[in-house]
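Bump. Still looking for Endonuclease/exonuclease/phosphatase domain-containing protein structure tokens.
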Amino acid sequence: MELSRHSVQITGPQSVRKDTATGSNHSGGVCILTSNLYPSTPLTLHTSLQAVAVQVHTRSLVTVCCVYLPPHDAVSQQDLETLVDQLPTPFILLGDFNGHSTLWGSDVTNSRGQQIERLISNNCLCLLNNDEKTYFHEPTRTFHSLDLAICSPTLLPLLHFTVGSDLCNSDHFPIIVSYADSGGAIQYPPRYLFQRADWGHFMQLADITESMVSTADITEAVQNVIDCLINAANNTIPKSSPRLRKFRRPWWNEACRDSRREEKKRWNIFRRYPTTENHVAFKRAKALARRIRR
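Sorry for the wait, here they are.
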């Protein structure tokens, strides 16, 4: 995640960030946001590169590192190697590397691309990218692959890489790394909805009898009581859905919806046929949609 030099206050998820120095001539800065649903710990990196990392526990403990390499900065191979050496395995290295290589779908390979190729080869890492383009250069109306996802070999068979189709008012497409068998859906632990409980029926089912607690083994007696209460709760108290809830925007109306659809339609046409006429039509639709939302 690349940031500008403006101060941004982020609330809600946990965040770890590294901003560029005040007065720097180039934009940049990196940030990782982690959901409160997953335990995470920031890692201290000793590097001059724009990079941050966290260890997050999803199915297992995984290190996630986000890096930004400015296109015109000289980056030494040793700095890249030192960064990778500091990452506990297994890890995923994500970022805007600003390098071109035929390895990830570019037409040519430049010096930055060769550096990244050596980094992958020297450390026996795996590249998750396919030939999908991740960056749109508006002045030349061309598409490139600048954003990469690199991982430890043990993670390669577990992960799935895709590129989003919407620029989201950026010049980079979102890159999405997910577990290959997750189906793309975020599951939340279901919760009991106590306000909708049938307490009368619950009291009938949650009947702790003498036979449940008269056993010689105290552990068995406690388990009998727990099983009785859980069975009563499951039959009388509804649960929330494990699916991620969509939060409705009160200001989103039909005009916003229609203008957004037209913007996406014009973008898809331009992406397939990048002519000047289609580019102008897309920019007009984008400007109209933005004006309506404001």
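The first strand starts at residue 14 and ends at 18.

Edit: fixed formatting.
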